[in-house]
User: Which sequence fits this backbone?
C-alpha cells in the first residue's frame, strides 16, 4: 500500500541520521517486509552488514541470473558462514530462458541493446518483480556518484512499478567511504574488486575498469551509446 507523503518525508528525515538510521527506521516500521536487493557488490556488502546488525534474520535476496561469476557465489558462501544467514535466491523462469536461448543463442546480449535488454528482462527484471511481491520496502546500494543517470537518486522514494518504498541509504556515499566502511568492519567482499572490477554483474557483461575510468564503464562496454542500466533502476523521477 502506498504510504502517505508524510511517511516518505519521515524516512527521508531519518536518512539525515545516516544509512544505518534509515535502515533502522525502515525495519521498525515494516519488519521483514523490508527486503535488501543484493548483487554482492561493495555497496550491498555495506548494507548487508548494517541490516544484519539490526535484524540477523533480515530478508536479503539475490537475483541469480545463471550467469554470475564464480567469485560472487564464493562470496555468498562466505556470507552465509560469517553471518549465519541465508539468502533468498531468485532464478529466472526456466521456460523463458529456454525459449530465449533457443531463439537467440546463449550470448544474445552481444548482438545489440535490444537483445541485451531482452536478456536482462528475462534474467533480472522479471525475477525482481517476484522478489518484491508483498514487500513494503526494498533497499538498494545505488549511489549518486556512480553515473549521470544516478546523480539525482533520493534516499527514499515511492516505487510505483513495484508498489513498494525504494530506499537508497548510500545515495550520498563516495566510493572511498564504502571501502573505508568495509575495511573498518572487516566485511567480506567480492574478490573481483581486487582485480579492477568496480561494478559487478553477470560474468559475460562485466569487465575490469582502468583507474580513473567511469565505474559503470565495465558494464556492457560494447554499448557506447546506451544508458548502462539493466532495467532494475529507472532514473530517479522515472519510477
Ligand atoms: S547482465 Fe548480461 S547476462 Fe546478465 S541478464 Fe543482463 S544481458 Fe543477460
Assistant:
Amino acid at each position: 500500500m502506498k504510504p502517505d507523503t508524510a511517511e516518505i518525508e519521515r524516512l527521508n528525515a531519518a536518512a539525515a541520521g545516516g544509512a544505518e538510521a534509515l535502515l533502522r527506521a525502515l525495519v521498525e516500521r515494516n519488519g521483514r517486509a523490508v527486503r535488501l536487493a543484493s548483487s554482492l557488490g561493495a555497496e550491498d556488502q555495506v548494507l548487508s552488514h548494517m541490516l544484519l546488525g539490526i535484524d540477523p534474520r533480515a530478508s536479503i535476496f539475490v537475483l541469480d541470473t545463471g550467469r554470475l561469476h564464480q567469485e560472487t557465489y564464493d562470496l555468498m558462501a562466505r556470507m552465509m558462514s560469517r553471518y549465519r544467514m541465508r539468502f533468498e535466491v531468485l532464478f529466472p523462469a526456466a521456460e523463458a530462458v529456454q525459449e530465449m536461448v533457443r531463439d537467440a543463442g546463449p550470448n544474445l546480449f552481444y548482438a545489440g541493446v535490444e537483445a541485451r535488454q531482452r536478456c536482462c528482462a528475462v534474467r533480472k527484471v522479471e525475477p525482481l518483480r517476484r522478489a518484491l511481491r508483498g514487500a513494503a520496502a526494498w533497499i538498494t546500494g545505488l549511489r549518486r556518484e556512480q553515473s549521470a543517470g544516478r546523480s539525482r537518486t533520493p534516499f527514499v522514494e515511492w516505487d510505483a512499478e513495484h508498489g513498494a518504498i525504494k530506499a537508497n541509504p548510500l545515495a550520498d556515499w563516495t566510493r572511498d567511504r564504502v571501502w573505508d566502511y568495509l575495511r573498518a568492519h572487516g566485511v567480506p567482499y567480492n574478490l573481483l574488486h581486487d582485480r579492477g572490477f568496480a561494478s559487478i554483474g553477470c560474468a559475460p557483461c562485466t569487465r575490469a575498469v582502468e583507474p580513473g575510468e567511469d565505474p559503470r564503464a565495465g558494464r556492457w562496454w560494447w554499448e557506447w551509446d546506451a544508458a548502462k542500466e539493466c532495467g532494475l533502476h529507472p532514473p530517479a523521477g522515472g519510477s
In short: The pocket of iron/sulfur cluster is lined by residues 65, 67, 109, 116, 119-120, 123-124, 201-202, 204-205, 230 (CB under 6 Å). Residues 113-131 form the longest helix (19 residues).
